[in-house]
Amino acid sequence: MGPISGGRRKIPTVLVAFLFAVASAGCSWLNPPTFSPEDLKDVRTDVDYRMVLTHWKRLTGEKVIVGGKVDSVDNRTNRAFIRLIPMPLDENDHPVEPESTHGYLLLIVDGPVDPSRLSHGKKITVIGVVRRMRYPVALDNGGYLHLVTLDVLRMHTWLPRVMISSPPMGPVMTPPGGGPYVPSGGIP
Prior knowledge:
By secondary structure, the protein is of the alpha/beta class.
């Protein structure tokens, strides 16, 4: 009786370990990485957008990962300029709303980009090489805008987070002979 009862105790432990392994593997399957390991090779993951804005001279030539919201896109024949409002990144490299942000980054992409994919307010994450400070751009209010430039190597655009609302409470009333799919005037 000893071996049988001992075997029964091991089965739940093995089952729990198996279920834990499946659950943890399932999480990574549901949330794949933003960039592949090949894309992240030689990327300075210890650098955030604040460091790029303040220490750009020391970081010139380094590959970094930054993200934020698109402010504007200027398409040219052979390249595109994207002005980015930088934001901190979460553990999945998704831009998250900061308490406040200072400055902009100027992303330079080889070739034009689709402006419908990069509209104002669209969140993106990029891997790029820090280049230089662009000459200050004069603003309407008399100030100057200093832009650190990055050559974009890889870009990921994010879909907006969707809020799922519950259906209306109670029955939905439609007029006789009408409804959302019937032209006004009665029966189709």
